[in-house]
Amino acid sequence: MRLTYHGHSCFLAEAGGKSVIIDPFLTGNPTAVAKPEEIQVDAVLVTHGHSDHLGDSIEIAKRNNAPIIAPFELAMYCSQKGAPVHPMHLGGAHQFEFGRVKLTIAFHGSAVVAEEEGIVYTGNPCGFLLTMQGKTFYHAGDTALFGDMRLIGEFAKIDVAALPIGDNFTMGLDDAVIAAKWVGAKKVIPMHYSTFPLIEQDAAAFAARLQPAGIEGVVLKAGESIEV
To answer: Using an 8 Å Cβ cutoff, are 68 and 61 in contact?
Structure first.
């Protein structure tokens, strides 16, 4: 599996000739270097309805004829906007042609906030366990620290995890360090930080705090990739 970071919480995962993108917030993202029209994928995974995660999902899904995989209520919202969808919900898993997707809990909110529609509730947020070519990537989504991260790590055998560290809206550094230990991945990528001043964080300091636990903190700039 090849993972490419596109800033904020957006990742492109590629394996076996297939690719999926998670939370493609590209337009309006000051850290992103890719444009939505450049993205070619087989599926779009969306953790929740906030604009910095739903982002360009509908446009990318339509152009690629690729389903948006998301919690049921969010998937239905995207379907109403003309996007192909595959609705799922927390705890559920499905085997797709590109790999296996399982939804995990995430402690956050989920709504589309738009001038013309107001606030549209889009169900529960989620995280994703994405398995492609025998490798598993845990994208925690926007979340607080929660005890069941221990169970996710125990049962999922995670190869690499992406955890939010920005604080204010999600876990901060202290809680993310605990989460990294609980999920049991040997590699952890920080996400959801320093996109805006309110969530400014020192990712290198986070990575350094993981070293005593034998965890490699992988700090990526937008456009950079790792092989898993």
So the answer is: yes
